[in-house]
Amino acid sequence: MARKFVRAVFPGSFDPITNGHLDVIERSIKLFDELIIAVGKSPIKNQLFTPSERVEMIEEITQKRQMPGVLVESFDGLTVKYAAKKKADVILRGLRSLTDVHYEFQLAMTNRAVAGIETVFVMTSERYGFTSSTLIREIASLGGDLSNLIPENVYNRLKKRLKK
Ligand code: ADP
User: Fold this and answer.
1) What secondary structure letter does DSSP report for 4?
2) pTM for the structure as a whole
3) Which of 5, 51, 98, 107 could cysteine-pair with 74, CB 3.0–4.6 Å?
4) Catalytic residue positions?
């Protein structure tokens, strides 16, 4: 039987993208034929980078690391509507710990109930189990060294942004 082409959408705020997100992306490339990293435009609390800045940073990384089949876009509104528009087969979400499971489980069940779309979870490396964009923003604002937790281009942009 011919193998089905599988397209996944990875939605998130990615403000900014971290090595944890990238770990999930790199693991997922092996599972899907196409992966769309979808940066949500909906206003988030304490937004640091605009959606287009976030897309730009992610594109710099996907181009540098040569990730075929990986696309980056921003989107507005409901994730399931965007996923349907893109003809995505699944939604991808990353898991760091059991704490994530509670929220992600609810989200996945709701998305399946309203749109019939399945969610695939990929666990991040233990190394990034404690990394969150929120903490990155906080540590950066206090001048901490984040070079192990975020890619270099993001680190440089953060430093520039926080100097302003
Ligand atoms: P959202 O606001 O939609 O949760 P995020 O950008 O915070 O957006 O996260 C997007 C996805 O990546 C979520 O599934 C989240 O659980 C996952 N994620 C966040 N940080 C990490 C990490 N360090 N390792 C693996 N997955 C992560």
Assistant:
1) P
2) 0.95
3) 51
4) 21, 45, 96, 133
